[in-house]
Design goal:
The complex is a heterodimer of chains A (552) and B (300). Chain A contains 20 helices and 24 strands. With 552 residues, chain A is α/β, with parallel strands linked by helices. Chain A folds into three domains: 103 residues, Urease, subunit C, domain 1 (Roll), CATH 2.30.40; 137 residues, Diaminopimelate Epimerase, Chain A, domain 1 (Roll); 177 residues, Metal-dependent hydrolases (TIM Barrel), CATH 3.20.20.140. In chain A, strands 1, 2, 3, 4, 5, 22, 23 and 24 form an eight-stranded mixed sheet that branches. In chain A, strands 6-15-16-17-18-19-20-21 form an eight-stranded parallel sheet. In chain A, strands 7-10-11-12-14-13 form a six-stranded mixed sheet. In chain A, helix 18 packs antiparallel against helix 19. The longest helix of chain A has 17 residues. Chain A is globular, with a radius of gyration of 24 Å. Chain B is of the alpha/beta class and 300 residues long. Helix content of chain B is 25%, strand content 26%. In chain B, the strands form two sheets. Chain B has a seven-stranded parallel sheet, sandwiched between helices. In chain B, helix 1 packs parallel to helix 2. The longest helix of chain B is centred in the C-terminal third of the chain and has 12 residues. The radius of gyration of chain B is 21 Å and the shape is globular. The chains are: A alpha/beta (552), B alpha/beta (300). The complex binds zinc ion (2 copies). One zinc ion binds next to strand 15 of chain A.
Amino acid sequence: MLTLYPARSIITMNDSMPRASAVLVRDGIILEVGERENMQPWLEGQEYQVDEQFADKVICPGFIDPHLHPSMAAVLLPMEFITAMRWKLPWGTVEPTTTKDGFDERMQTLHAGKNDGGADEPEPLFIWGFHQLWHGPMSKARVNAISTTRPIVVWHRSFHELYMNDAAMAMAGVNIDDIKPSDQIDIDNGHFFENGLGYAIQHLNPWILAPDVYAAGLERLKKVVHHGGHTTIGDLATGLFDFETEATTLAQLLEGNEVPFRTRLVAHSARMSGGGRTLEQAVEKAEGLVERNSHRLHFGKHIKMFSDGAFFSALAQLQAPGYIDEHHGEWLMPPEILEKNIRAYWHAGFQIHVHVTGDLGLELAIDVLEKMQFERPRFNHGYTFEHFGISTPEQIKRIKVLGGQVSANAYYLHELSDMYAKDAVGYERASQMARLGTCFREGINTTLHSDFTMAPAEPLNSAWVAVNRINSEGDVMCPEECLTQQQALQAITINAAHVMGMADITGSIRSGKRADFTILDEDPLTCDPMDLRDINIYATVFEGKVFPTTTL
Amino acid sequence: MIDIPITIIGGYLGAGKTSLINSILTGDSPPANLAVLVNDFGDINLDAKWIKEQSPDGKIIGLTNGCVCCTIGEDLSEALETLRAQLGEFPIEHVLLEASGVASPKKLQRQCSYPGYSPRATFVLVDAANHDKQCQDKFVGYLVKQQVDEADYLIASKLDLAPTFTLHGDNIGKVLHKPNIFSPDYDQQDTAETTANPHSHGHGFASCTLPQIAQVNINHLRALCDALPSTVHRVKGYVETDQGLQLLQRVGDALTLEKVEQQTATPPEQGHLVFIYIDQQEHAVRQHLQQNLKQHWRFA
Ligand SMILES: [Zn+2]
Ligand SMILES: [Zn+2]
């Protein structure tokens, strides 16, 4: 059976035919895109239907987020959000809460809205998104004021700290006598940070990391991914918590006819080398992962490495002049180990994805790529710089020459550039974070990601940031680095497909590719750039099957 | 219940953390009921296996670096909780923690103040052969110096490859010579500012200067230096020997003797040696010196 979809417009992301008005699909594959009158030869003597449901819609290639973390998301998504930024979620948009009183009111509403279903014990309430910058100082007393009987846990936006009320501490079995003043726990305030957070998590595990909770979280993730308009995602560190558990659970929950997207699984390199394996054995293990592949889940010759620390924690490694307060970032592994690992996978022909946040972390990853190219030149190797917070124009030239790709979290610019300008690195470097215009001008294959849960898993939101470069205060940061709407759409479709190593099957609409579409109410190339993130996603099509977003 | 002490072994990659841990486990008297937490960084894990094979009764738990964007799945707390949960089966009395090569000792020490546990001294190994180079490296130069600055005690390794080793920074007095790291000498942390623990009070260092009264044979001098207790951090001074006036410097394991040309240098009026040692060990050190050095040096 052939299906012909006429549309108000089709944006193909194939430069040879940028626009079309109809697409013809058979068995999940695009037969032809173009004008209906040219498709007659396909239809001659064939059974076909004309599906008019997208006739007044705009069809785009299915969106791709090439870097998010399903496992992190599974932990976060069962929680309630109270955030300073807007988060669009399938079960309702979380509007920004930017004041102390607003935060307390929301907590109160969430508490009151909990249906305990006649249970003896009130159900615990987990809240994520607190940030003192907007929500004022948090304390146990403040949470106790909401409820002394319902366990309430308030998680910081950064994930690095949390607060509990007395009921939550009792539920978790926090033994007050156990805790001494020097521990990273402020027991009077119910505040757990650094390794004290580790202590809290160990005690909250039954509620946040239990298999059924994790599975429920992944169900929510599936909805988030669908609602974001994705048809392909990348899990950019399979094994974040535990490799076997994750690989097995993802294989169960992200596979099946009702799952409207495919997942590129990129293993966490440290999880390949653990358990006493040599580096050679680690590479062998990584190569063998493809045996686990199913229709929607694919390991490939991809591997994830880490250079410097988290951007949200100001632990990126910076070149001179560094941070204003003179603190230094962190390395996530010794540079020599990073190089050794990269060398092993480079020589085995892998596409290497390196997490880099600051310009010194980036410098290391570029230096290593340069060494690899000297040792054993490779073309089309796909070496990708992930996150790409702070960079220099000179580094971008080197990336170009060495054949690297960039996968950027542009959301850093939106949420952090104001704070970074004032407190961390100064205006010049803060305004130029996510230097994406330069990447496009150099002709580097460049994509955008959410690193969800670091940013909302909404490709149109990432595109909105990259096009407008508006920060949390509403200021435009470095308009010279803005992307055009065309470039931004490229970034979340065909360029992302290249980074995922899947450009042969998805990322654009052309004859022979999978029928992966994102169906929009408005045209993302001609709309007001400020409206980009508000375009309604009407449906997605995954390999020819329509998944309306309204059924959720 | 008393907190279980955690001894931290830090230092950059290649400084010899694994060798040190291994020598403890295979030494004459490895402490009873010791748990070892080793860092599991890719191929370093090989070392973990190696340690395990050599330690039939020690309990070894491998650590990975936890989550990179956040601290969910924090390995250290998980390992500490695991040990605590198994105290009935494995009565742990002491934890030896191998820091990751990129860890800040100060930060790690703060993290070791954990319900049921308290940090003890932090020993940072310094790769004498590569110290200069590492301190100038554009990626890890700051880190290596930071690790030295934040250490309670320093142990220099690979001194045979670097006889002229000198440590960067102000921490020269903290260099130990073949220490028994479980000795009660190191129960307290050296400097209060390396920890959030308000109860800790550190060691000070004391020194004494001994004027030389008789010429000494150069080989005998070497033997005397070798026999010094590990609580003597540093020795420096001029010594009249059968092979002329020598400038003696001893840091950690490293002894250097440099002949002083009397024409070029201003010769000291008299040979003398300065000894720097932990003040709490004053009595023992002075006793040792008096017994062994009194033939050639004068005691007040
Ligand atoms: Zn990530
Ligand atoms: Zn993380």
